Amino acid sequence: METLLILVAIVVAFTIYKKLTAPKVTLVTKSQLNELMLDKKSKRSYIDVRTTDEFNQKKIKGFKNIPLQSLNKRASEIDKTAPVVLLCASGARSMQAARILSKLGYSDLINVRGGIGH
């Protein structure tokens, strides 16, 4: 019984830790993304973290392709002073990208909910 309580405490502590350390990411829909892209007055970086093959099959005008696996090496290509809009096929890799960029000091991160697939 004591072992079970310790395991439950560990799981709860881990869950709280993950919530506290999760990057603060604004989630937007595809229609909200369209509005952002129409706003030419605001400077933003648009990053597609899909693989190069995926990107070449279905490009979205205005997005730069930096595959998730290359993000750590290529993060310096992204302006830290502007909001960063992240996109992938489903929203999962772009959320991983948000975690990486958050750890690298990027603070204004926007993820397209559901990616381009929805």
SSE order and pairing:
Blueprint: H1 2-21, E1 25-28, H2 30-38, E2 45-48, H3 52-57, E3 64-65, H4 71-74, E4 84-87, H5 92-103, E5 109-112
Describe the structure.
With 118 residues, the chain is α/β, with parallel strands linked by helices. It is 43% helix and 15% strand. The protein contains five helices and five strands; from the N terminus they run H-E-H-E-H-E-H-E-H-E. It has a five-stranded parallel β-sheet. The termini are far apart. The model has no long low-confidence stretch (mean pLDDT 91).
In short:
With 118 residues, the chain is an alpha/beta fold. It is 43% helix and 15% strand. It has helices spanning 2-21, 30-38, 52-57, 71-74, 92-103, and strands at 25-28, 45-48, 64-65, 84-87, 109-112.
Attribute tags:
elongated, single chain, Oxidized Rhodanese, domain 1, 5 strands, 118 residues, five-stranded parallel beta sheet, alpha/beta
Largest sheet: 5 strands, parallel
Write down the overall mean pLDDT.
91
Count helical runs: 5
Instruction: For the largest sheet, list the strands in their spatial order.
Output: 1-5-4-2-3
* CATH domain fold name: Oxidized Rhodanese, domain 1
- Could you give the distance between the termini? 45 Å
Number of strands: 5
CATH architecture: 3-Layer(aba) Sandwich
What portion of the residues fall into strands of 2 or more residues? Answer: 15-25%
CATH domain class: Alpha Beta
Indicate the radius of gyration in whole angstroms: 17 Å
**CATH homolog superfamily:** Rhodanese-like domain
| Share in helix | 40-55%
Low-confidence stretches: none
The quaternary state of the protein chains shown equals single chain
